[in-house]
Design a protein that fits this description.
Order of helices and strands: EHEHEHEHEHHEEHHHHEHHEEHEEHEE
CATH class of one domain: Alpha Beta
CATH superfamily of one domain: Response regulator
Helix content: 40-55%
Number of strands: 14
CATH topology of one domain: Rossmann fold
Radius of gyration: 28 Å
Distance between the termini: 75 Å
Structural class: alpha/beta
């Protein structure tokens, strides 16, 4: 049964910061005769609800300004909005997600990527039971402990049941996937055992040869122990980078790809009634997304080359490196009102070309985020550091950032501002950190929203 009808369609509000995913979700719901309003973040969604109360809310968990959990909490705290059913869109990757959903009063989870029939079934279930929500005023309050942390849940029985059932459904699907992986592994283990049995018979004749080989390997291991020790620290850092890198690539490279696939699907839909102007818009978005993906891939290649490039460490004149970097960014300073404050830096120890790239990236960052300032103020100078350590800072009076997110600044593809406001891929600062880490130094940043930012890096002096 279709809950919505053409004469009086039920209204659904979507809170989703991805334009492509919001438009796809809107497309699916409007195809089934729902009236849909889409907002880019939680704050805008809350204001829209207070202006016109919807029948149901679907919100992504990860959004700027106000995330889905906080939006749900605000809805439940507003007497006028408290009875609106709320569905959370999430990857449901951590048990904490379930408790966060219960604590904020959500009614249901839908895991990404969602399947259309499952999405509609969840919506129809909640809408069909709206009358139960109006009659059930009693709430249950309980304390739950997970991983040593206390969670206080205050929700109606229907909300708790709906949320746990949707979580159970996601867990069942994960279990099916794990069961299949287990079966495949068992099959491979069986094949491996057969190979081991076959090889055991022939190994007896090879024992003497292997003993001699082991003696040689032991000698090689003794010679390589020092190199292994030195490399262990590098590999530990590389593994941490790889984890962050893998997540960023899967998230950020998929984003333009989802744009391309989503708009291509709408463009090729034979039932679409889109006008020529709308189709041209679809083609423009597809083209822009392809260009964006190419830009991301090019920057990834640069980032990869930075990690593999051979280093030529020597004593360097940092003032000369700063001057060379200023020449490199000269085109970006034309027609700009910029006040430069450059203090003597003295000498450092490192690869000249790589350190020049560090300063270029930091100056480019400062020039970009002071674009709205007149005059822009950019300062370069030293501060006291530890023994045998040189610390350099680059300070600007630009738009700044929230210190709560400072740890994200040097991650691959990590951005704290919208692409529409400030261009870029988020690779520049990641390259700065990678180069400085290869030199045995460290990077950090300080800032405040609307009050500029300061980026620091340290270098050994010998």
């Amino acid at each position: 049964m279709n809950t919505a009808n053409l004469n009086n369609p039920l209204e659904i509000l979507i809170a989703e910061d991805s334009p492509t995913q919001a438009e796809q979700l809107k497309y699916i719901l409007e195809k089934h005769s729902f009236s849909v309003t889409a907002m880019r973040n939680g704050q805008d969604a809350l204001e829209a609800m207070r202006a016109r109360k919807p029948t149901l809310v679907i919100t992504d968990v990860n959004m700027p300004e106000m995330d889905g959990y906080e939006l749900c909490h605000q809805i439940r705290a507003d007497a006028e909005l408290a009875n609106i059913p709320v569905i959370l869109l999430t990857s449901l990757a951590d048990p904490e997600d379930v408790f966060k959903g219960l604590e904020c009063g959500a009614d249901n989870f839908i895991t990404k990527p969602y399947e259309e029939n499952n999405l509609l079934a969840r919506i129809h279930h909640l809408l069909a039971n709206l009358h139960l929500r109006s009659h059930e005023k009693m709430q249950m309050s309980m304390e739950v402990y997970l991983a040593g942390q206390k969670h206080i849940i205050t929700s109606s029985r229907a909300q708790i049941l709906n949320l746990l059932l949707s979580t159970y459904e996601a867990a069942v699907q994960k279990n099916r996937e794990l069961a299949k992986a287990h079966d495949d592994l068992a099959h491979l283990n069986g094949q491996l055992e057969e190979k081991v049995i076959e090889r055991t018979a022939s190994l007896a004749a090879e024992v003497a040869v292997r003993q001699r080989a082991e003696d040689e390997v032991r000698k090689l291991n003794e010679a390589l122990e020092l190199r292994v020790t030195e490399r262990t620290a590098q590999l530990t850092l590389a593994n941490r980078e790889l984890e962050a890198f893998s997540y960023s690539v899967s998230h950020d490279l998929r984003s333009p790809l989802r744009h391309i696939l989503g708009y291509t699907e709408m463009l090729n839909n034979p039932e679409s009634r889109a006008t020529d102007e709308t189709k041209l818009h679809y083609l423009k978005v597809i083209s822009q997304s392809a260009e964006r993906m190419a830009e991301l891939i090019d920057d990834l290649l640069d980032f990869s080359r930075t990690g593999r490039a051979e280093m030529r460490k020597m004593t360097v004149n940092l003032d000369q490196i700063v001057q060379a970097a200023l020449n490199d960014v000269d085109n970006e300073t034309k027609d700009r009102n910029i006040v430069w404050k450059i203090s003597p830096l003295g000498q450092g120890f490192g690869d000249p070309s790589m350190l020049r790239q560090v300063v270029v990236n930091l100056l480019t960052n400062a020039l970009k985020f002071t674009r709205t300032r007149a005059p822009a103020e950019i300062e370069i100078g030293p501060i006291p550091g530890k023994e045998n350590e040189k610390i350099v800072f680059v300070r600007d009076n630009g738009v700044g950032f929230d210190m709560e997110y400072a740890q994200k600044l040097f991650g691959v593809f990590q951005r704290l501002h919208r692409q529409e406001d400030f261009e870029g891929t988020g690779i520049g600062l990641a390259n700065v950190q990678r180069i400085i880490h290869r030199h045995g130094g460290r990077t950090w940043a300080e800032g405040a929203v609307g009050r500029g930012a300061t980026f620091y890096f340290s270098l050994p002096t010998s």
